[in-house]
Specification:
Structural class of chain A: alpha/beta
Number of helices of chain A: 13
Shape of chain A: globular
Strand content of chain A: 5-15%
Order of helices and strands of chain A: HEHHEHHEHEEHEHEHEHHEEHH
Oligomer: homodimer
Radius of gyration of chain A: 21 Å
Mean pLDDT of chain A: 92
Strand order of the largest sheet of chain A: 3-10-9-4-5-8-6-7
Distance between the termini of chain A: 34 Å
Largest interface: A-B, 53 and 53 residues
Number of strands of chain A: 10
Chain lengths: 339, 339
């Protein structure tokens, strides 16, 4: 039901996803009558792989996460996440209210032992390949231990989605030297260095798009600002490019001639291709689609959830965190179990 | 002497600047013999407006700011800032080591009464006009009072450089609602709201490039990451665009046809046009040029320093902060003078 458009995006995306992915079934959760109406024209072979699960409520895009959690127990997002909790679905995908989705997922699914709080992770494009950045807004203040956990979770996500073994992890900072940054970040660097992860060291904002490392770890405040600043800049650049090609009849002719090139360029930076933010650290897979995306974007988010299930990303995170906890227990009396 | 190239950039930029700006003289500070060699071919009319001031040392681009401050008392940047302190120059412009320049400027010039610590501010391009963003890296942790001071300083810079009266000020956050962000940011929002500044409220990363407000206030960690992430993304996009147009003989032909359009586009996002970061809050004008810029970029930084002198930006900041301090003193016994 979620997102700026709702069923007109999520249903076509689901149908397309099912055609491309023969061994998966979908449960569509929301207003049964409205969903059924969208499914009318489907061939039986596709329709048979869709179950509709009624939910009487919808969380609004601007609703308070806490109120949604408290008052909307039959919302489409709550029911979807319940299905994951009950093992009736292997993943939930939503284009709805991010805060409410996170609050609900945390409340219903709980975190993996050893993970303090879940994080939002996303693959970002880079000159030589994608980089996973987390946290992108779930945690405003982060302890050094949380930043270490983000490193573990981001690594496992890269293994799962990008199939790169032993991903390198960078810590987002304002300089490459060890003396840079807050006390919390300096301590996080120490923890990451001792963790057994493939820790690269400090990275800076530009390294996100330089493909310097596979995973960039940061607190949710910094990550969110970096993500949104990048979205803002990309929008400005594409606006300027469009304006320049639309200026006169001559520039329009140039645009026509250059169209195939410009199309290929656009495809490389198409935000829909990078849609799908993973909520990591929970005992279930939840993927958040951008609310403003279209059917292609939502399909990409469905594919991402599917990849995470196939790769057993949660099992891998749990195993790695368990090893980490054991190391901390063995390393001395001051060590504490953060589970 | 500073920057990746040194005199081959700074001297041509200086000469060009003098030709364009008849009522200004320049003092070039550094290795006298090397500078004089660069000035050989100049016509007398320009040469007469240049004074060369010898400095026996140069701070390396990767040198420790504290060591540079302690050991290089005759460095070109130290001597330049001394000239400002002594009133023999109205502003200093350097393409050298940012940390060393800031440490030296702080030590020699001191801050304006009521300003806790200086900040680095820069005009960033936006869809409908430039936005001043600060702090961009001088202060990793910022108190609410400092963020308020950044708001005041950024406003006065916009008045001086952009000639916009009563600039609007946004507080960088991860959502527009008042409940978002850290405790420090929530308190800063209260201070800004009570300050008499034209406070807009919270803004997000994308607002920097949407021209939502004239000034975006943030701590130096977040600001630095946002700036560098933007630089990284801009570089990635221009690389992709170049690669697509260079792919085949046909796309190269398209590029040739579209060249005038692409040139106009590039000019709009040319980082040289946005070169020049102002160190605000000091009792003297210091402008930092990007170390990797060329003569055009360095000239823009010289022009920016010149504009700040003409507009008396320091006097205006001092006046506004004095009013602010008086308000705080009058508002209750718990108020403290942060000077």
């Amino acid at each position: 039901m979620g997102g700026d458009v709702g069923l007109k995006v999520t249903v076509p995306a689901s149908v397309q996803f099912l055609s491309d992915t023969p061994d998966v079934n979908l449960v569509l959760v929301g207003d049964q009558a409205a969903i059924e109406a969208e499914l009318m024209a489907l061939p039986d072979s596709v329709r048979a792989r869709i179950t509709v699960r009624h939910a009487s409520e919808v969380v609004g895009m601007d609703e308070s996460p806490q109120l949604a959690l408290k008052n909307k127990k039959d919302s489409s997002m709550r029911v979807s996440i319940n299905l994951v909790k009950e093992g009736l679905a292997q993943a939930a995908v939503s284009a709805g209210n991010t805060g409410a989705l996170m609050a609900t997922a945390k409340f219903v699914l709980k975190t993996i032992p050893g993970i303090d709080r879940p994080a939002i992770a996303k693959m970002m494009p880079g000159i030589k390949g994608n980089t996973c950045v987390l946290d992108l807004g779930a945690n405003v203040d982060c302890s050094p231990e949380q930043l270490l956990q983000f490193g573990i979770m981001g690594s496992e996500l890269v293994v799962s989605l990008e199939h790169r073994p032993n991903p390198s992890v960078g810590l987002l900072n304002i300089g490459s030297e060890d003396i840079k940054g807050t006390e919390s970040i300096k301590r996080a660097a120490e923890l990451l260095r001792e963790s057994g992860l493939n820790f690269y060291g400090n990275v800076e904002g530009n390294d996100i798009f330089k493909s310097t490392v596979d995973v960039v770890v940061c607190d949710g405040f910094t990550g969110n600002v970096a993500l949104k600043a990048s979205e803002g800049l990309a929008h400005m650049i594409s606006t300027f490019l469009r304006e320049e090609f639309a200026r006169t009849w001559w520039t329009k002719l140039c645009a026509l001639a250059a169209m195939p090139v410009l199309k290929r360029f656009k495809a490389r930076v198409d935000p829909r291709r990078y849609n799908g933010a993973s909520f990591l650290g929970l005992r279930g897979i939840v993927v958040k689609s951008h609310g403003g995306t279209d059917a292609l974007g939502f399909r990409i988010a469905l594919e991402q959830a599917c990849e995470e299930v196939r790769a057993n990303v949660i099992g891998h995170i749990a195993d790695r965190v368990a090893v980490q906890l054991q190391n901390i227990r063995q390393s001395g009396p001051e060590a504490k179990d953060s589970a």
